[in-house]
Design a protein that fits this description.
By secondary structure, the protein is α+β, with helices and mostly antiparallel strands. The chain has helices at residues 2-35, 68-77, 133-137, 147-153, 196-202, 222-236, 252-295, 297-305, 310-347, 362-388, 392-397, and strands spanning 43-48, 66-67, 81-90, 97-101, 104-113, 124-128, 142-146, 164-167, 170-179, 191-195, 208-209, 211-216, 247-251. It is found in: Cell membrane.
Length: 399
Amino acid sequence: MFRTFLTMLGVIFAMIILVLLLGSANGMSNGFNKLFAGTASNSLFVWGQSTSEPYKGFERGRRIRYKLEDADILKRQIPEIEVLAPRIELANHRGTVTVYRNGQTSGSAVYGDFPEIDNITKKKLVEGRFLNQTDIEHSKKVCVIGEETYKLLFDKGDKAIGEDIRINGVYFSVVGIYKPNNNINIDGENAVFIPFTTFQKAFNSGDRMGWMAIAVEENTPVPFVESQIKSILKAKYDIHPDDERAIGSFDMSEIFNNITAFTTVLKGFSFFVGIFTLLAGVIAISNILLITVKERTQEIGVRRALGATPVIVKRQIVVEAIVLTAFAGLVGFAVAVGILSILDAMFGSGENFPFVQPMISIPQFIVSFILMVGLSVLIGLLPANRAVKIKPIDALREE
């Protein structure tokens, strides 16, 4: 009995290892999904740079500056673009602007935006609201500020919604405060967002557009759309077809694809290691059954002499292997789930730690359990075959 219990421990620990590995891999995958929540996985950012090749009479080093009409051209010619949000930034040589309020200042990034930008890089609003279409249509002098901007311009506990801040001599009323997502933070938390149309009038930017945030339709490769965008813009701005520096771009899908590939490989490796660990545990059960068959030689001989067929003897041994393996596997599964629950309680609620709901899925459990039982059947056949090879007359002579 004690020997059987020790043998079952091998399967118990093997199942614990398998479930912990798979659960941890799933927890990391869920953690990355949480970490990057709010950023469109199929997004693309495009901006103008300087040419590196002379073309059509233009010298190299020419600065490419986009116009607002480019957004309409791209949306019209590339149906795979789901969202295109033009952006423009007000900045000095340091990339920031001094924002004033009652003698307090903040060196903040100031963006002119359309509401659609929130569909690509979601802002977590702490208070108030984000920009809307009414702000655009009426060129309202409103703004949304980051938490860091609030801390620099307001005293702790001060009400900000409805209060005015001043940017380059123009007053804007605060309508919202946001905190950035804990992922790829494009704008930072010391930033001010104002309606694009208001930006045009307040800072005399005309039809200029700084850059574009783009979301591509699902199931459409982002690099495909990126190449189309560059072809259209190169043709419009007389950029050499081989010039790779004139148009800057950043494909966000590359990051998500790399993370997905990493977690997929991690899950596969965890399953591979776990299954071989489980196989070692099942082999231990096979060994104990071989010893059991040796010890029960007389019993098997008597049963054979009384008419038990080889199939009946085989079935008994195989059923014993299945019962021992399944019971030990379920015990190991229960222990592993308990450990994962504790880990989730300790780390799953953290904002920055990529470990959320580290549990195996139902399909993973079903596949693991079926494989475990299947292995127990195959391994159980070894002692079962040994048992049916025992001749009744020889078994009865055993002492």
